[in-house]
């Protein structure tokens, strides 16, 4: 079956009532024009609110591993268990809210520009500070089980967004398509009601959405500090050229 036919047969987003940002990474052209396999790699917002109908749909996907990037308090507040699904907590503690509160305590009213700066700082922090967690994700992608996997955080947009970008770039997907996948959050994610009621809508629109400037802040740091994604994968995450070829063999369709 040709890649375009395979893509037509599958859908990127799935109709979960309790997870608006759940989607498949399949179909994007990678190394040699080979498409990323469908129904192998999924990204999502948190999974604790899946309804009974959602859980039935989830079971049809064959997902056997769930990687949770939420911090300890986040995961404790919205825990989940799925029969037959191995749970892998790789906590990356959220920092934006803490930094925003620090600004407010100093007497400064948080502006949209401040929020953009905080988000960019957070993404730059992913590159070095969270490297052990992303390295662990790639070890799971390369382990012997080779079963479908979902990775997520709370909203599925920042920690998850950077992880998805790293996976797609490792598979040879072009940066413009990686950015396209990243920005899909803005069309899909439904912000929880009542969140940030004391914060201006202008600021909330920054904190609960994604912008090219956020992901680019991290990718520019990767390029600046490591000379590119391939070197970052090898030097910071332990995914050398042989491992990158193994990833391609596992997650790209045959020529």
Automatic annotation (TrEMBL):
Tyrosine specific protein phosphatases domain ranges (all copies): 132-202
Range of residues in the leader sequence: none
Domain of life of the native organism: Bacteria
Coiled coil residues, start to end: none
Pfam families (UniProt xref): Y_phosphatase3 (PF13350)
Matches recorded under Gene3D superfamilies: Protein tyrosine phosphatase superfamily (3.90.190.10)
PANTHER family xref list: TYROSINE SPECIFIC PROTEIN PHOSPHATASES DOMAIN-CONTAINING PROTEIN, TYROSINE-PROTEIN PHOSPHATASE
Family of the protein in this entry: Belongs to the protein-tyrosine phosphatase family.
Protein name: Tyrosine-protein phosphatase
Source species: Verminephrobacter aporrectodeae subsp. tuberculatae
Lineage of source species: Bacteria, Pseudomonadati, Pseudomonadota, Betaproteobacteria, Burkholderiales
């Amino acid at each position: 079956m040709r890649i375009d036919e395979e893509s037509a047969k599958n859908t990127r987003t799935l109709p979960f009532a309790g997870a608006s940002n759940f989607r498949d990474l399949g179909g994007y052209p990678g190394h040699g024009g080979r498409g990323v396999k469908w129904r192998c790699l999924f990204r999502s917002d948190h999974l604790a609110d899946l309804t009974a109908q959602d859980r039935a749909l989830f079971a049809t996907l064959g997902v056997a591993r769930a990687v949770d990037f939420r911090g300890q308090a986040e995961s404790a507040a919205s825990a989940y268990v799925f029969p037959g699904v191995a749970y892998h907590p790789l906590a990356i503690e959220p920092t934006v809210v803490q930094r925003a509160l620090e600004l407010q305590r100093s007497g400064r009213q948080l502006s949209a520009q401040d929020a953009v700066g905080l988000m960019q700082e957070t993404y730059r922090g992913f590159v070095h500070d969270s490297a052990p967690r992303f390295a662990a994700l790639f070890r799971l992608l390369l382990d012997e089980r080779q079963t479908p996997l979902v990775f997520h955080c709370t909203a599925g947009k920042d920690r998850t967004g950077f992880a998805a970008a790293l996976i797609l770039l490792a598979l040879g997907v072009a940066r413009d398509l990686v950015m396209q996948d990243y920005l899909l959050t803005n069309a899909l994610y439904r912000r929880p009601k009542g969140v940030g009621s004391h914060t201006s809508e202008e600021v909330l629109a920054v904190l609960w959405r994604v912008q090219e400037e956020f992901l680019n802040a991290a990718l520019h740091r990767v390029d600046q500090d490591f000379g590119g994604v391939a070197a970052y994968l090898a030097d910071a995450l332990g995914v050398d050229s042989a491992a990158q070829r193994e990833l391609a063999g596992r997650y790209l369709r045959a020529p």
